[in-house]
Amino acid sequence: MENREKSAHYDVAVVGAGCAGPAAALQAASMGLRTILLEKAAIPGEKNVSGTCLNTAALSDPDLHYLLDGPVEREIRSMKTYHITEGRTTVFHEIPSTGILLLSIRRDRFDAWHTERARKAGAEVRAVRGVVTDKGERILSRVVIDGGGVNSIVGRKAGLIPRRSGTRMILYVTAAVRLGKKKIDERFGNTIEYYLAPGCQYKTWPWIFPKRDVVTLGTGGYMTPELFDDGHPHLVSYMERFMDLLPVRERIYDGKIEAWGLHLEFDDQLPKHAKDGLILAGEAGGFVAPFLGEGMPEAFFTGIYAARAAAAGIKAGDLSAAFLEGALAAALDENLFLKSFMYVAQKNKESILAKPDPEIAEMMQSVVMGGGFITNVVHTDWMSAAETGDVEKAREAKDFLEFLQPYRNIGSDFEAVYAARKKK
Amino acid sequence: MKSGVRLKYRPGDPGDFLRVDAAKCNACGECARFCPRGVWKKDADVYRPAAPGLCAECGACWNVCPADAVIMDEPRGGTGVRFSLG
């Protein structure tokens, strides 16, 4: 350890230029730390298949405002949810009176931009060919931040990332359909769509996200034996059925499938995110909420917090697992966005796993206060409280609804910040 | 319909990044069952990555193997599967 300290070329080495990596490198370099960012893909972002819409509730955090300068494909201003059962289809169309809900992006362009931003802030960016860099060197640093994704080899070799399947892991298939800007403007406009339909998913929510001239579709399921039954010999059959739904057919008609993707998302918490001199950020650290389609803000935040934890550890002369984990946990604890999203995701996962899909669709159709994930949590808590006469639980549901109100009203503020940055 | 999914790859040799530890493999076939790309095939008493060129690098096989017999490293830098849109 002492030798390593003495011969360290860098204060911080960041592995992976996805979402967490460039955020960590940018933060570390901005704090004056000697920083290197390592990436193995030919273009940063092209090893990613997920993460396509940035949640503006998260981007309202000043820590993430700089991301608004990045390349955006489409400003998403409304969301449709299709709940399809044998009997009927209900469509819930949520349109905030003001504001942008999400920024639709392409990961290859966005991650490349983000990496360049980290480089401009002073981080060295290096392509990696294997366990050594393309120049055959050995990189030594005082702290390693692992932003290497769900199956990161760094976290696995450190023993922090175990094998995970069953209801802890979701397997997704995605497809990109080229329609051209005009057709997407007509058929989707600035709306993203979620679906819940017979035989089109296993405990997940298929989606369609419009980009500038392409839409991406995705579906999948938890990695339990039930994922494959007589109707679904293979993951791709979920996508085929999804594409065959009438409302989906109408939307992707005349389009051309130009790309496919396959990926895993972890849907649980890792017990530990640090070892001596190592911090896991983003998906490597399990910081993702696949149920809500959330992963990028979690990665940006934890990348930034990991860099700050590294800086604090270097300053304190303490790079132990306990110190780094503590610094990361303290920062996470103050982030209300992350905490509330984790709560909503966990509650929804519980209700989804407890019921068969047709019942879930019916339940969502009859959620009287709306059809969104957040209202589902509040409604479910509320109804169970009413059934059991549990006043305390009903109060908790009401408190949670009130707690979330600031996030429902972020629109106008965010719009102003966004417009100001775009003007620059 | 496995052949219906076409992925894009960077040219170049990705290296021997996906292997089986034949001593640990119990031939349960979970790797082949969860692999969305048909990479794993039974060969006598063990499953082997018979078509690594089709691998999407998703890691389903490594995660699902109950015997810890899947050895999944990284493809060589600048090679392997590529995505763009997310």
Summarize the SSE layout with pairings:
The complex is a heterodimer of chains A (about 425) and B (about 90).
Chain A: H1 2-7, E1 10-15, H2 20-30, E2 35-39, E3 53-55, H3 56-59, E4 74-76, E5 78-84, E6 89-94, E7 102-104, H4 107-120, E8 124-127, E9 141-146, H5 153-157, E10 166-178, H6 181-187, E11 191-196, E12 207-210, E13 214-223, H7 235-244, H8 246-252, E14 256-266, E15 274-275, E16 278-280, H9 296-316, H10 321-333, H11 336-354, H12 357-365, H13 373-388, H14 391-408, H15 411-423
Parallel strand pairs in A: 1-2, 1-9, 2-8, 5-11, 9-16
Antiparallel strand pairs in A: 3-7, 4-7, 5-6, 10-13, 10-14, 11-12, 12-13, 15-16
Helix pairs in contact in A: 2-4, 2-9, 9-10, 11-13, 13-14
Chain B: E1 8-10, E2 18-20, H1 30-34, E3 40-43, E4 46-49, H2 60-64, E5 70-72, E6 80-82
Antiparallel strand pairs in B: 1-6, 2-5, 3-4
Largest interface, C-beta within 8 A: A-B, 48 and 37 residues
Which structural category do the helix and sheet elements of chain B fall into? Answer: alpha+beta
The termini of chain B sit apart by: 22 Å
Beta strand % of chain A: 15-25%
- Average pLDDT, all residues of chain B: 91
N-to-C series of helices and strands of chain B: EEHEEHEE
Cα Rg of chain B: 13 Å
The total count of strands of chain A amounts to 16
Order of strands across the main sheet of chain B: 1-6
Could you tell me the radius of gyration of chain A in angstroms? Answer: 22 Å
Work out the oligomeric state of the chains in this entry.
heterodimer
Strand content of chain B: 15-25%
Main sheet of chain A: which strands, in order across? 6-5-11-12-13-10-14
Shape of chain A: globular
Percent helix among the residues of chain A? 40-55%
Number of helices of chain A: 15
How far is the first residue's CA from the last residue's CA of chain A? Answer: 46 Å
What portion of residues of chain B is helical?
10-25%
Put simply, the count of helices of chain B is 2
The overall average pLDDT of chain A, rounded, is 87
- Largest pleated sheet of chain A: 7 strands, mixed
